[in-house]
Amino acid sequence: MTRIPAVRFLDRATPPHIFTLIVLTGLGALSMNVFLPSLPAMAEHFGADYRLMQLSVALYLAVNAVLQIVVGPISDRYGRRPVLLWGVAIFLVATIGCILAPSVEIFLAFRMLQAVIVVGLVLGRAVVRDMYPADQAASQIGYVTMGMAVVPMIGPAIGGVLDETLGWQANFWMLAALGALVLTLTWRDLGETAARGAGTFAEQFAEYPELFRSRRFWGYCMAASLASGAFFAYLGGAPYVGSEVFGLSAAQLGLYFGTAALGYFFGNWITGRFSVRVGINSMILWGTILSTAGLVLSLVLFLMGFKTAFVFFGSMTFVGVGNGMVLPNATSGMLSVRPHLAGTASGLGGAITIGGGAVLSAVAGTLLTGDSGAYPLILIMLATSVLSVFAILYTIRRERQVVG
């Protein structure tokens, strides 16, 4: 749309308020990590090995990635509103199932079903693109994804308090209560923003090659995947670096670990304030350059002998800010290449980003052994950041040549 539609809060005859999209996104982020401090208690409750309980994270992410591919096309065909309502409703049922599960196997099955809440992230971005042109969409997506930065910082702390005072089930009762509130809010506020697709799914899938053939789509995808890949590598390797290389306690590691999330929050704020004025391509370029510069600074200081936790984690703030600038703008770019396939583009792009990030996270965890210190992690992150710069430069060049 070129004309921005009017929005009236709690009026489903109009597009949704930004607050509704923020809570839809935040609920998915909260369900991912709020119960992590409870894993030992949950393993004891089910009489299961701790490593088996950790599958509640890996399986959730795996289903999350698959659903991102499926949810977009379904919403392009049937509309954003019904898919979001059904997704939140299924999440609510799955959360209650986690609480009442009599065995670890049934718990894990319901936990995988909980991943359906990814509809909030995928379609929240698609709804924004339905409502706004590309530059303004990037600005709004930046505000929407702020919840993805704030929640990981406070979620585990809330979960730990609930676990100690009320037991591990309290985390899931909280998610159930929030799910019910979000379902009500979505029902009342979220009006349809996409025209329903015509024809069969086969006819709809026949249109997808035009998206897949777009070099700009893949350019934005690669810029987002490589930039976020540095952050995912950090998630996979920083706990080892903090505890084994720098000897940080769990409390100290938690404090240092938040630097990247804080940077991401600030990067989202920059996106919200300046994307309309600067343009999405320039924001992505400067975000990738900032991430790369921070990692170059970290590497240079390490080579000079300043091998401290403050230097390592402090440089991650630049990576966080860069990601906060890159991801909302790259997402808007992906969704803008073929606006009538915005849902599909959002899902596919998200799946590629998470899949690539998961691989880099595993690689970082594998390489960080022996006496290598933090160097392997810094070099992996630096390599992906440099490649993200080339990806957006290619995309800018392609856009100048031809639109398509």
Keywords for this structure?
mainly alpha, Growth Hormone, Chain: A, 2 domains
Describe the 3D structure.
With about 400 residues, the protein is an all-alpha fold. It has two domains: about 20-205, Up-down Bundle (Growth Hormone, Chain: A); about 210-400, Growth Hormone, Chain: A (Up-down Bundle). Helices cover about 80% and strands about 0% of the residues. It contains 18 helices and no strands. The longest helix has about 30 residues, at about 215-245. The chain is globular and about 60 Å long. The two termini are about 20 Å apart. The mean pLDDT is about 80.
In total, the number of strands is 0
Low-pLDDT parts are none
- Given the C-alpha coordinates, what overall shape results? globular
C-alpha termini separation = 19 Å
Number of helices: 18
